[in-house]
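User: We ran a pulldown and think these components assemble together. Before we commit to crystallization trials, I'd like a predicted model of the whole complex to look at. Sequences follow.
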Amino acid sequence: MSKYSIYFVLLALFIISWLANENFIQPNNLKNVANQISVGTILAFGQTILVISGMIDLSSGSVLALAGVLSVSTYVNTGSLLLSFVVAIIVSVTCNILNGLMITKFRTPPFIATLAMMTMARGAALLYTRGQNIYQIGDYIIFGQGSTFGIPNPIIFLIITLLVTAYLLKHTIFGRSIYAVGGNEEAANASGIDVNKTKMKAYIINGIFVGIAGIIFMSRVNGGMPNGAISYEFKALTATVIGGTSFTGGVGTAMGTLAGAFIVGFLDNIMVMVGVDSYLQQVVRGAIIALAVIYDIWAKTGKADKKLRSAE
Amino acid sequence: MKKILSMILMVIIMITMVAGCSSPSTESGGEVEGGGEDSNGNGVYRIAYIARAQADSFAAWLANAVMEESEKYDDIKVDVLDGQASDDTQNGLIENAIANKYDVIIIQPNNGEAQRPYAEKAVEAGIITITTNARIDGIEGASSVDADPYMQAKVNADLAVEQIPENANVVVLNGPPGNFHADERRKSWENEFFAKRPDVKIVGEEIANWNKDEAMNYMETWVQANDKIDAIISMNDNMAAGALEVVKDDPKFKDILAYGVDGTAEAVLLIKEGKMTSTSLQSAYDLAEALLSTSHKLLTGEEEQIDIDIDCPLITLDNVDEYIEMHKKAGAIK
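Assistant: Here's a predicted model for the assembly, 646 residues in total across the polymer chains.
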């Protein structure tokens, strides 16, 4: 049961929100929340894969902005949605290959390597646009504001990335290598796993997700914003960690991360709905995040302690 | 061996630092007296423009405008330095600019009070000091060029007093707390609008930090929680545009009024489309023009101290075309 503790937190929050304001439960509102968390959560799936394997990406918000503005600019200049999509993915994957190279070839700690990339990518986005937003982006907004079969496109991207992440982690050799590398790198190496190759793959997948997130972000705000998505990497990490992924590596799931993202999303939503003072909101948000994680850890280790005692 | 080498390196660095710090201060006295033209020999005045943050779109627009404007002056060269939205970084840049013996230091403060002592240091060092957007008030010997944030909001609020229907529901989007322009604009709306219209109800008020995406998220929620929202009152155009993005295709909100400040390219387009109601222009070009002409007057000794405010014209559907032209010329829109 302890495995599911985070879903109880989510359920409790859902019920409390429902009682607090009747508008909360409206399908449109729930759709909004899913829309709002889409960008952060897609980044979080990338972070989940990385954190499980003992790494991190601090550059995702900045790379998102760089990939996003270049993609918007491509669309404005060529009018091709396909090309603009491809550009975003290529840019973001390239940045992440550089992250991977710094980490695997030059043995830079992931924290520092991606911190450097964070500054470089943000700088490049600002340099390219001279700090100015790109407007009049036309049909580009389809990615983030359009719908397919009645489902908003960001939610479709969210579901696809969720399924990809869950499948990769659960049902592939790559997924098992990710957990192994994060659990114990040397043991993984000894058991014949190519650690560097696994790490590089993890960054490439992260790159694809960040590129998609960049397209949705720029499309949702209807402009190419080089200063957009600042500190989104922490938004993503928050969802990842609330969702039960361990910073010590080797533990975590895609569904958990999704639950973590919804906990933050519902919380932000209900506080605005009932009109909580905007300064107080920040305090509450922080406190709830702490409580959710404490409960999750308590629910898991409580069980473990009992097991130990019964063993004695 | 490595240890000794690194020791020697450290000593060299220390010596250069000490020398670097002391030498300009010994010379600067004499040079500043002599005026910019003599000190550089080549007849070109050097201006350090210390921007709040190159990542802030208005600050970047202003920095670009200052660079463009400076090209009109043969005897002025501007260096733009990026304060990175950090008090600490910005204060360091001011110190460096003093040590570097610039003829003029223009400061666009991240937080006026935090930069005040450093601006005072610049004045003490005999360097012409100008604060802008927002000005730092009451520094003896410093000049300033700014737009008045209270007036910027007031011209919109005056219009809103007439336009917003009786017993209206409105939402308010605020800038970052503690920011001079954010606070003054909100104060202006309080005094010039809400005090005069007690019938109007605020159904939502949030800090969206000047950001479009944050404003969108709040508006999406407000639209769920309220059947009737008559007006969006925003402290800048970016947030107003974000809120409008949410309701643009919703027939329920087709008559919604929206007010901003700044006169960005996006806002003038929205006004032209009839989606946004009004904004007031905080023109980076006007600020840049005033900054350079002020610098020039102070450098040539024409005047000793100048404090000016640029105009904040109201932009509505009636006069929006002229501002669209302005942005087209700048290449921000097609």
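Residues 2-301 of chain A form a domain with the ABC transporter involved in vitamin B12 uptake, BtuC fold (CATH 1.10.3470). That may be worth checking against your pulldown data before setting up trials.

User: Thanks, that helps.
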